[in-house]
Automatic annotation (TrEMBL):
Residues 12-336 form the Glycosyl hydrolase family 32 N-terminal domain. Residues 360-483 form the Glycosyl hydrolase family 32 C-terminal domain. This is Glycosyl hydrolase family 32. One of its GO terms (biological process) is sucrose catabolic process. Pfam families: Glyco_hydro_32C, Glyco_hydro_32N. Keywords: Glycosidase, Hydrolase, Signal. Belongs to the glycosyl hydrolase 32 family. It comes from Flavobacterium hydrophilum. Transmembrane segments: none annotated. SMART domains: Glyco_32.
Length: 497
């Protein structure tokens, strides 16, 4: 159909039909990366939640699978996580392969309608065939009862190798709560974090918590990822993070990082409007050692109104998250997984550009910009605004760049095509503050039919947004007053779909 042709992403995962939101329960097992997601197969707006399922060999090309977990009438299967129970600590294994245990929030819609408080509890399900079919743990659910908190959901569990325990983080209204377990069935409350810390413009949801090596060293730190809605970096849904230490019970922020959180109100994993509820993969082979992340590429501000009908929403490109230390400051960087490079079918090197006013990057015309990776460097930047413009013959454009007077990156989709389906979609330009004025910068941009993912300075700042142009973008140009110097322009065509 026309809709499929125009808006079905070339290489970002979308279900064939129906509504999707958060990624859930991702793990790697037996050669496959598994992705589950909040799914309503019978409508294109949020509804009775199932866990949809897809698998991939390389985190790029996804194959949709039968629905993994069904709701029981009004008891919806909300977000959660899964862990490969390598040593069968749960006893749920049958001896042939390691059982995989999923934990999710069971959300009781009847209680919600009755305005009850104890609407949400944590239940588990398990798989004994490497993640393809699942049984609910009927005899033992819930594994965590509702403690009298209305918003009490999205459990994310992981093996804590340092303290030899399973740990779980879940979102409890305005804070993250930590639990521990020996067997994934009995959970003991440990502590909480976050009341009055970080961004609190909305309810906290979908946390993640893991230990990670500081890049290039053997030092480790703990990272808490914490989504919230609304109150994100540029409005609506957004995902902040914290860095610190964990003694097996309590998470404490690193001092410098805490100061940065104080100063900036929050530190975000992505400054675009469309990367929400992202969490990381469990059981990635240790020889690989990567921390792999994927987000929901939409925003509750307008997700249910975007102009696609057969399906709604996609995931972001899978990303590798790394922790870097500069002086005494820790920061997360995220970059597209390297597997995407194997889909590059053609590489065009652009001529270096130098000049004022509007300059076109002629090589962009030779690339299908609905499946491309573009990278370039800019240098000798002045106190000026550098605007990159993706445009089509209908006069629609998507612009992004560096405002080097106010020291931020920006992304503006106000003229990018269909925007009037929601007032919140394009009324504001998204911004990502930069530390001081830039002398130079490096961009990597991933383009699909309806999305742009900008990785600035090797993933120090990321901006992810969707758009709905009425025709594909075919040109790329740059505009500045003082003049720009662009080098290392590389346009990679992807052969994928
Ligand atoms: C986040 C969220 C989660 C919840 C799920 C329901 O987008 O609100 O907190 O579990 O969606 O679909």
């Amino acid at each position: 159909t026309a809709e499929e042709k125009m808006y079905r992403p070339n290489f970002h995962f979308t279900p064939k039909k129906g509504w999707m939101n958060d990624p859930n329960g991702m793990f790697y097992a037996n050669g496959n990366y598994h992705l589950f997601y909040q799914y309503y197969p019978d409508g294109n707006k949020w509804g009775p939640m199932h866990w949809g399922h897809a698998i991939s060999k390389d985190l790029i090309k996804w194959e949709e699978q039968p629905i993994a977990i069904y709701p029981d009438r009004d008891k919806y299967i909300f977000s959660g996580s899964a862990a490969v129970d390598v040593n069968n600590t749960s006893g749920l294994g049958t001896g042939k392969t390691a059982p995989i245990v999923a934990i999710y929030t069971l959300h009781d819609m009847t209680k919600e309608k009755e305005n009850k408080i104890d609407v949400e509890q944590q239940d588990i399900a398990y798989s004994n065939d490497n993640g393809f079919t699942w049984q609910k743990f009927e005899e033992g659910n819930p594994v965590i009862k509702n403690p009298g908190i209305r918003d009490f959901r999205d459990p994310k569990m992981t093996w804590d190798e340092t303290h030899k325990q399973w740990i779980m983080v879940l979102a409890a209204q305005d804070r993250s709560q930590f639990y521990k377990s020996k067997d994934l069935k009995n959970w003991e409350y440990l502590s909480d974090f976050g009341k009055n810390i970080g961004a609190h413009g909305g309810v906290w949801e979908c946390p993640d918590f893991f230990e990670i090596k500081v890049k290039g060293t053997n030092e480790t730190k703990w990272v808490l990822i914490q989504s919230l809605n609304p109150g994100g970096a540029n409005g609506g849904s957004g995902t902040q993070y914290f860095i610190g230490d964990f003694d097996g019970k309590t998470f404490t922020q690193d001092n410098n990082f805490a100061q940065k959180v104080e100063k900036e109100k929050a530190v975000w994993i992505d400054y675009g409007k469309d990367n929400y509820a992202g969490v990381t993969w469990n059981n990635v082979p240790s020889a690989d050692g990567r921390r792999l992340f994927i987000g929901w590429m939409s925003n509750w501000d307008y997700a249910q109104d975007v102009p696609t009908n057969t399906w709604r929403s996609a995931t972001t490109i899978a990303r590798e998250i790394e922790l870097v230390k500069k002086g005494n400051d820790y920061n997360l960087i995220s970059n597209p997984v390297k597997e995407i490079n194997k889909y590059v079918s053609k590489t065009i090197k652009g001529k270096n550009l130098k000049g004022k006013g509007k300059l076109s990057i002629p090589e962009a015309e030779k690339v299908d910009l609905t499946k491309a990776i573009i990278s370039f460097n800019v240098k000798n930047l002045k106190e000026d605004t550098y605007t990159f413009i993706l445009s089509n013959p209908s006069g629609e454009s998507l612009t992004f760049g560096i405002n080097n007077t106010e020291n931020h990156l920006f992304l503006d989709r106000s003229k990018s095509g269909k925007t009037d389906f929601s007032e919140k979609f394009a009324s504001k330009i998204s911004k990502a503050a930069l530390e001081g004025s830039q002398k130079e910068g490096a961009f990597k941009i991933i383009l699909d039919k309806t999305s742009i993912e900008i990785f600035y300075n090797n993933g120090e700042r990321v901006l992810t947004e969707i758009f709905f142009s009425n025709q594909p973008f075919t040109s790329l140009s740059v505009s500045s007053n003082e003049g720009i110097e662009m080098s290392n322009i590389v346009l990679n065509q992807l052969n994928i779909n």
